[in-house]
Structure formats: C-alpha cells, structure tokens
Amino acid sequence: MTYRKFYSGRLDMHILDRIDAEYEKKRKILTDEIDRGAWTQKQKRRQKSSIISNIALYRGFIDLGLSKNEAKELVKEYSFYIAEKVHKLLKTFFYIPGFFRVFRFFMKKGMSGDEIWKSKILSNDEKYYRIDVLKCLWADTCNFFECPELCEIFCLCDHIVFGNIEGFVFERSQTLGMNGEKCDFCFRNDK
Questions:
Q1: What ranges do the domains of the chain cover?
Q2: Name one Pfam family in it (predicted).
C-alpha cells in the first residue's frame, strides 16, 4: 500500500501527491548515510529493514510543510497499522499449544549478541521470559539521525504487537527510547 493511499482523505492533495516520492528520496539519503557509517553489516540490514522507514516518512512530512508533531503523529498512525498486522499473526500462533516455549526460543535467539541489542536475560522458564535491554539499535539509530522523539513510536508498537493475546501478558515499565534506563521486557505465560 502506498502512503498516498493510506493517508488518503486525511491529508491535503499537495502532500498526498508528493509523499511517496518524498519518502523514497529520504529513504535513499538515509540508506547512503548508513552505508557510509561505522555500523556493522547486521546493524545496517536491520536499520534498512525495520528502522529508517519511519525516519524517512517523518522527514518527508516535515519537508512537505508539516510540523514535527504532526509528522510524528502521522508516522505513529502508519506504524500502529503495521503493528496491528503483526499482532494478528502472533496472536494466531499463540493458539498453538506450548507456543510460549517457541516464543521464548526465538526471543532469546533474536536478542543474542550485542549488535542489535545489549541485553540480559533475567528469567526464562515456562511462566516468564524477562529481559533487560541495555542498548538498542532503534534508539541508537534515531539518536544518530537526530530524531530521538521517533523511538517512542517503536516502543509503543511493542504494546500493540504483544498486547491483548489470551493467556499471554506483556509488561514493561520503561524503555531506552522513552528516556528510561533500560527496556525491561516481561512476557508472562498465563495458560
């Protein structure tokens, strides 16, 4: 779906007519900056696949005359739409008996190493998967591109993706992207 189509009826035509091209232009600039930077290949892949799209869209809206607050709210709206799609898929998987064990395995595997996250597992059993994230590529990338305010959107999307799943509880009291000392993830199996 194009951004023009997604935002149709909510934005002026002069913005709708230009937002997709503006986004692509910004995405190319951000990609080039990442490629020239001191990031690892793994970090670059994750930035390109999961992070810079929000930054490019945000910058595109600003360059088309919207305020930072307006741009942020529009990026949040689209991000929540995507998070809801991921949530529906994850929710389906939790109908599989014993899926919490599979979930823990993939979380542990995905958060291993220190290129994307620096983290510490606090518990990993049939009832809880708790992990403190002490460094986060999303926060680092938003800070690098001088838009730390955007990281909040990524943090809020976690509540959409992991929330409202029967027998599965997601809790977090702070995030690095929202000025916390860490991201204190807690996943609880209530089945």
A1: 3-189
A2: ATC_hydrolase
